């Protein structure tokens, strides 16, 4: 069983299909990223519901702002997770993300999912649709948008361009593919 963030659904399913793996997948809502304190309890509740029915269980999540709480839950239940602080690490690799941020600390990352759902998760999620005066408070220190492309798609590329325009920032595109969703880290 794979427990994954809903923002990784397409990619996890693509990796499973490409490798002809027959794993069940349970997804938690991507909106939990706006409330990282709820991620660990939601994962724990799902682990408890699935324990005894599936072995092994693997978590495909970054820490995603839980401050280590997710890892504590996973350790308690003997569940492994792919390494990474966030989904950017899972897609591009932590070295690439760290180098990118060292080069330009004001980089705003978009995954394919985040590009497609920018309006709902970022714009509305941060309340900018209701309080546009908050724009500078959130984004004044950003200098560019980096779209980490997992699965090339014209509609997703257009959504990333629209998000960058909305943020009034230049867009850079980095093709990551799915290679960093390391299958070697998943028990067989």
Structure description:
- The chain is built from 9 helices and 7 strands, in the order βαβαβαβααβαααβαβ.
- It is α/β, with parallel strands linked by helices.
- It has 2 domains: 2-87, no CATH class; 88-175, no CATH class.
- Strands 2-1-3-4 form a 4-stranded parallel sheet, sandwiched between helices. The chain has a 3-stranded parallel sheet with strand order 5-6-7.
- Strand 1, helix 1 (9-18) and strand 2 (25-28) form a beta-alpha-beta unit.
- The protein is globular and about 50 Å long.
What order do the strands of the largest sheet run in, or round the barrel if closed? 2-1-3-4
Biggest sheet descriptor: 4 strands, parallel
Strand fraction equals 5-15%
The helix count comes to 9
Number of strands: 7
User: How many domains in all?
Assistant: 2
Q: Would you summarize the structure shown here?
A:
The protein is α/β, with parallel strands linked by helices and 188 residues long.
What topology does this entry show?
Elements lengths: L1 E4 L3 H10 L6 E4 L10 H12 L7 E3 L8 H9 L2 E2 L5 H6 L1 H10 L3 E4 L1 H5 L1 H7 L10 H5 L4 E6 L4 H14 L3 E5 L13
Parallel strand pairs: 1-2, 1-3, 3-4, 5-6, 6-7
Features:
4-stranded parallel beta sheet; globular; 2 domains; 188 residues; alpha/beta
């Amino acid at each position: 069983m794979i427990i994954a963030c809903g923002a990784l659904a397409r990619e996890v399913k693509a990796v499973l299909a490409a490798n002809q793996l027959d794993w069940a997948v349970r997804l938690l809502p991507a909106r939990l990223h706006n409330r990282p304190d709820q991620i660990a309890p939601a994962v724990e509740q799902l682990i408890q519901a699935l324990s005894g029915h599936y072995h092994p269980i693997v978590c495909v999540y970054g820490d995603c702002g839980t401050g280590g709480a997710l890892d504590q839950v996973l350790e308690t239940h003997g569940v492994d997770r792919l390494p990474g602080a966030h989904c950017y690490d899972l897609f591009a690799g932590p070295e690439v993300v760290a180098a990118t941020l060292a080069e330009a600390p004001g980089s705003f990352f978009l995954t394919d999912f985040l590009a497609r759902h920018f309006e709902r998760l970022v714009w509305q999620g941060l309340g900018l649709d209701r309080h546009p005066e908050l724009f500078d408070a959130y984004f004044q220190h950003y200098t560019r948008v980096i779209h980490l492309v997992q699965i090339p798609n014209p509609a997703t590329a257009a959504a990333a361009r629209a998000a960058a325009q909305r943020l009034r920032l230049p867009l850079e595109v980095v093709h990551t593919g799915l290679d960093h969703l390391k299958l070697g880290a998943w028990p067989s």
